[in-house]
Amino acid sequence: MSEQAVRLLQGYLWAPRELAWDAEIELPPKIDLDGAEVSLLVDPISPPFAFFDDGTPTASQRFYQLTALVIAERDPNTLHPWVEALQERLAPVLEATPRGVGWLLFEDLRAL
Predict the structure, then answer these.
(1) What's the pTM value of the predicted model, to 2 decimals?
(2) CA 18/CA 86 separation, integer angstroms
(3) How far apart are CA 85 and CA 34, in angstroms?
(4) pLDDT tens across 29-50, in order?
(5) pLDDT tens-digit readout, 2-31
(6) Using CA atoms, how far apart are residues 52 and 111, in angstroms rounded to an integer?
(7) Please, what is the end-to-end C-alpha distance for the chain in angstroms?
(8) Is the torsion defined by CA of 42, 26, 15, 13 positive or negative?
(9) Cα separations (Å) of 50 from 10, 45, 57, 62, 104?
(10) 3-class DSSP string for the chain
(11) Which residues make beta-bridge pairs with 66?
(12) Which of 8, 79, 80, 93 has the most CB atoms less than 10 A away?
């Protein structure tokens, strides 16, 4: 199998507009997983939905799309352990964000 880019995680981060927090600056651009370099791509986006479940308008937030990519020679369906390891590495970073920062990340495992 030849090398291919595989998406490990895909999701969103958000922060109140008045909060001086920027995901593009605060998140590391790369994370090493036992020799596999995972790139974290952070892109500002328009809110993907109009309201949160509690009725809060999403227009009050800055939204980012987060995509975690790795170049691998393996079948994407075998990379679940890498997703788990990545989630463990990201957890302390996300949990250390200021109050009001939120995130929703999903395992993806699709080749691009």
Answers:
(1) 0.90
(2) 29
(3) 9
(4) 999 988 889 999 999 999 989 9
(5) 899 999 999 999 999 999 999 999 999 999
(6) 30
(7) 14
(8) positive
(9) 20, 13, 6, 13, 16
(10) CCCEEEEEEEEEEEEECCCCCCHHHHCCCEEEECCEEEEEEEEEECCCCCECCCCCEHHHEEEEEEEEEEEECCCHHHCHHHHHHHHHHHHHHHHCCCCCCEEEEEEEEEEC
(11) 11, 42
(12) 8
* Total residues found in the chain within this entry: 112
Residues 10-36, buried b or exposed e (16+ Cβ, 10 A)?
bebbbbeeeeeeebeebbeeebebeeb
Structure tokens at 9: 């995680």
Query: Locate tokens 């974290």: which residue?
Result: 40
